[in-house]
Specification:
This protein has about 90 residues and is an all-alpha fold. Helix 2 packs antiparallel against helix 3. The protein is flat, with a radius of gyration of 15 Å.
Length: about 90
C-alpha cells in the first residue's frame, strides 16, 4: 500500500513538473490537493503504521482531512477535464 501510494505520488509530481507550462490553474490546484492528501496519508502510514481517521460524522464512514483533499481534488480534476473537453468542441 505504501509502495503504490508512493509510485502514484511520483507519477503525479512528474506529470506536473513536465507539464507545468500547459496546466491551467484549476488542474494545478486539483493535482496539488490530491498530492497533499496522498503525502499526508503516506506520512501517517510511516509514522502510525496506518492512516489515522479522526472525523466521525453520524451515518458516514470515519475519515481525515487528507481524504477530503484527495476527494475534492479528484472532483475538481474531473470538472476541469469535462469543462476543458466541452470548450474544445
Amino acid at each position: 500500500n505504501i509502495v503504490v501510494t508512493f509510485i502514484i505520488l511520483i507519477l503525479i509530481l512528474n506529470f506536473v513538473i513536465n507539464q507545468k507550462d500547459r496546466i491551467d490553474r484549476k488542474t494545478g490546484i486539483s493535482l496539488c490537493m490530491i498530492t497533499a492528501g496522498g503525502i499526508s496519508n503516506l506520512i501517517d502510514r510511516f509514522v502510525y503504521k496506518g492512516v489515522v481517521d479522526y472525523i466521525d460524522m453520524i451515518g458516514f464512514p470515519i475519515f481525515n482531512l487528507a481524504d477530503v483533499y484527495i476527494v475534492v481534488g479528484w472532483i475538481l480534476l474531473v470538472v476541469s477535464v469535462i469543462s476543458y473537453s466541452t470548450k474544445k468542441e
